[in-house]
């Protein structure tokens, strides 16, 4: 019987692998989760007719293994209305962008269990969103569980008091946005968790599992950018894979209760990729830039007029060393200005070099080679992986910040630079086009081009003052704008409002709400020595293994 069932499953795999659509098998539905890599392909098949429970197998080198899961999964898609007009999206956005003070005064949320699903904790904007959410919910007295597949060493000295961290290793597919959330979803299925709210990012692949295992759980998805569009220049097989997965993912997004996007640009792209998702579900909520922390970390921001003038005009780029960030045009612009006879400038290229990702190190080395080839080593300095303290010192020392990625999803660097009272040069696309005001707080170039950037840099060198940043009155106005639209308080207030609307009058785990927050650190054994100690709370924390 088992061999017959396995044969049937394998035949189903052969048919469904061509389309990755939901098919009917013996009048029952079968859903295929696909997660491809060069080494193997992982599939999760849910077959109510053939098994009394969902089944999972790994197909690699012509073999596969079937294992059972406790309960069947309902594949019924939640009903959705016809696509609404852009006005609906705008109205949702306006509701989400109320002032943070109003949000905090009007919302009272019962104590609940919040699970945050965020794979791969690096040191980017999405990772800082996760940290902001964790600290916010803990400060409100909620029980918080954080599921992740890895935590970068950047966070090794950070403490996360009152949060249960479950680091679920996934050695088969490192870096893959689809399978990691599948693994985290399976961990939730077999865990002792009982969440009221799940906050997810990166991929919706775990949504059906959460909805099946925890039907009372409300799901909020924060979309930093549609994953199908994140790396359009990658190998064609990856693009093919991402497109097919996107077809399945649109079905999964229909089951999510609320979707946040990080900018109007991302909202537009999301609606193009997911045209059948109800527009009323989508809201624009800018990611948090912890304004209060910036002031604490860097003391009071000082304008260029108040500090000693630099010997040469200093430009600062603060960005990850990654090909899509287009840092190469900064080196090119420096070479162009040098050829024009402008040598009274210096460029600092600072940012994270991610040792676990080959593209980051390769691009970092490539930029150094370009700098030598263009003979601008005397004008360009590389500062890899600066600490937060060094980062804000660099902001204070520079005259203008550079942010060159085109179609950036949001971009927190311009916010940090503006808060430090420095003008910014950005590409006129994506999130930065919404945060930088032309010739008021910075300059926008039409596209990532060395010639255009060189012209903009020369404009900044010749511009003597920026009243909205240099004067106290102007800066107070900009500071108010930053606090209203981009602060951590406003971001968390919008999250609270969305949760309150989703929960309605639903009772929230009255039994569990009285429990003390669980202080458990969960790590793979290999990571215990390097990561466990920094993450331990002030009280002794129990460390145990997370089974993926």
UniProtKB/TrEMBL annotation:
Pathway it works in: Protein modification; protein glycosylation
Class of enzymatic activity (EC top level): transferase
Catalyzed reactions per annotation: a beta-D-Man-(1->4)-beta-D-GlcNAc-(1->4)-alpha-D-GlcNAc-diphospho-di-trans,poly-cis-dolichol + GDP-alpha-D-mannose = an alpha-D-Man-(1->3)-beta-D-Man-(1->4)-beta-D-GlcNAc-(1->4)-alpha-D-GlcNAc-diphospho-di-trans,poly-cis-dolichol + GDP + H(+); an alpha-D-Man-(1->3)-beta-D-Man-(1->4)-beta-D-GlcNAc-(1->4)-alpha-D-GlcNAc-diphospho-di-trans,poly-cis-dolichol + GDP-alpha-D-mannose = an alpha-D-Man-(1->3)-[alpha-D-Man-(1->6)]-beta-D-Man-(1->4)-beta-D-GlcNAc-(1->4)-alpha-D-GlcNAc-diphospho-di-trans,poly-cis-dolichol + GDP + H(+)
GO molecular function list: GDP-Man:Man(1)GlcNAc(2)-PP-Dol alpha-1,3-mannosyltransferase activity; GDP-Man:Man(2)GlcNAc(2)-PP-Dol alpha-1,6-mannosyltransferase activity
Statement: the UniProt record of this protein carries the keyword Transferase: yes
GO cellular component: endoplasmic reticulum membrane
Ranges of Polar residues composition bias in the record: 89-100
Principal location listed in the UniProt entry: endoplasmic reticulum
Subcellular location: Endoplasmic reticulum membrane
Membrane topology: Single-pass membrane protein
Keyword Glycosyltransferase belongs to the record: yes
Domain Glycosyltransferase subfamily 4-like N-terminal intervals: 124-292
Superkingdom of the source species: Eukaryota
Domain Glycosyl transferase family residue range list: 306-461
Keywords: Glycosyltransferase, Transferase
Enzyme Commission no: 2.4.1.132, 2.4.1.257
Region (Disordered): 77-100
Similarity section: Belongs to the glycosyltransferase group 1 family.
Task of the protein: Mannosylates Man(2)GlcNAc(2)-dolichol diphosphate and Man(1)GlcNAc(2)-dolichol diphosphate to form Man(3)GlcNAc(2)-dolichol diphosphate.
Protein name as annotated: Alpha-1,3/1,6-mannosyltransferase ALG2
Native source species: Caenorhabditis briggsae
């Amino acid at each position: 019987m088992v061999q017959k069932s396995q044969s049937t499953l394998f035949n189903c795999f052969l048919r469904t692998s061509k389309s990755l659509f939901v098919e009917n098998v013996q009048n029952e539905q079968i859903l295929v989760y696909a997660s491809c890599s060069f080494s193997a392909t992982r599939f999760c098949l849910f077959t109510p007719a053939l098994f009394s429970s969902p089944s999972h197998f790994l197909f690699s080198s012509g073999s596969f293994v079937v294992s059972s899961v406790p309960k069947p999964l309902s594949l019924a898609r939640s009903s959705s209305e016809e696509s609404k007009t852009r006005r609906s999206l705008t109205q949702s956005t306006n509701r989400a962008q109320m002032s943070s003070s109003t949000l905090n005064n009007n919302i009272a949320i019962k104590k609940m269990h919040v699970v945050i699903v965020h794979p791969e904790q690096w040191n980017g904007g999405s990772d800082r969103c996760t940290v902001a959410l964790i600290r916010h919910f803990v400060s409100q007295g909620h029980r918080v569980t954080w599921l992740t597949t890895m935590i970068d060493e950047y966070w090794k000295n950070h403490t996360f008091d009152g949060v249960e961290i479950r680091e679920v290793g996934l050695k088969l597919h490192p870096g893959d946005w689809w399978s990691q959330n599948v693994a985290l979803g399976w961990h939730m299925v077999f865990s002792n968790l009982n969440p009221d709210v799940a906050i997810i990012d990166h991929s919706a692949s775990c949504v059906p599992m959460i909805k099946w295992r925890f039907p009372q759980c409300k799901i909020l998805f924060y979309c930093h950018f549609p994953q199908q569009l994140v790396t359009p220049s990658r190998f064609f097989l990856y693009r093919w894979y991402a497109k097919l997965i996107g077809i399945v993912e649109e079905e999964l997004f229909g089951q999510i209760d609320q979707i946040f996007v990080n900018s109007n640009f991302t909202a537009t792209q999301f609606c193009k990729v997911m045209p059948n998702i109800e527009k009323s579900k989508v809201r624009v909520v800018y990611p948090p830039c912890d304004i209060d922390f910036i002031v604490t970390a860097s003391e009071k921001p000082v304008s260029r007029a108040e500090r000693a003038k630099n010997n040469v005009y200093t430009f600062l780029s603060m960005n990850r060393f990654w090909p899509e960030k287009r840092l190469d045009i900064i080196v090119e612009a420096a070479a162009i200005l040098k050829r024009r006879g402008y040598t009274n400038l210096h460029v600092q290229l600072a940012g994270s070099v991610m040792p676990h990702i080959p593209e980051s190190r390769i691009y970092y080395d490539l930029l150094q080679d370009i700098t030598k080839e263009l003979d601008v080593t005397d004008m360009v300095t590389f500062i890899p992986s600066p600490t937060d303290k060094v980062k804000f010192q660099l902001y204070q020392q520079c005259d203008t910040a550079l942010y060159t990625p085109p179609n950036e999803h949001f971009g927190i660097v311009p916010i940090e630079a503006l808060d430090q009272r420095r003008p910014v040069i950005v590409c006129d696309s994506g999130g930065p086009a919404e945060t930088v005001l032309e010739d008021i707080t910075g300059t926008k170039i039409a596209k990532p081009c060395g010639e255009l950037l060189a012209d903009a840099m020369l404009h900044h060198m010749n511009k003597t003052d920026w009243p909205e940043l240099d004067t106290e009155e102007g800066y107070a106005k900009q500071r108010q704008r930053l606090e209203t639209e981009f602060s951590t308080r406003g971001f968390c207030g919008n999250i609270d409002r969305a949760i309150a609307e989703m929960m309605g009058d639903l009772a929230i785990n009255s039994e569990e709400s009285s429990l003390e927050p669980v202080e458990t650190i969960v790590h793979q054994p290999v990571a215990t020595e390097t990561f466990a100690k920094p993450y331990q709370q002030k009280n002794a924390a129990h460390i145990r293994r997370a089974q993926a």
